[in-house]
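G., the chain you wanted modeled:
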Amino acid sequence: MHLRHIKMTNDEKKQLEERVIMTLKSIYDPEIPVDIYELGLIYDVVVRDDASIYIKMTLTSPACPVAGSLPGEVEAKVAETMGANGAKVDLTFEPAWDRSMMSEAAMLELGFM
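Predicted structure as C-alpha cells:
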C-alpha cells in the first residue's frame, strides 16, 4: 500500500498550530496554578508540512520535580490534538526560564502585577 504524502496549506498549518496552543494551555505545571503556555515554558511550536508537531520547551528549573514526566505528557497530549500527525518535544534550558517569560495573564494570576 502506498501512502500519499499530504502537504498542508499555510492556512491549515495555522489552524493546527492554534489547536496545539489550546492543548498546551490545558497542561499545567503541578506546582504553579498556571498553564505551561502562559508560564512561558514553550519556546517554539512548529507545524511541519506532514502535520507533525515539533515543540521546544523548558521547565521552571532543571531540578523541577516533573522534569522526567512533563515533556512526555506534553508530547502525548499534543500528538492527540485533532489533525496532528505525531509530536516531538525537545527539552532545553537555554535560555534559562525566568519570570519575565510569563504572559501578563500568568503574572496577574500569580500576583506579580
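The helical segments are 10-24, 70-79, 104-109.

Shout if anything looks off.
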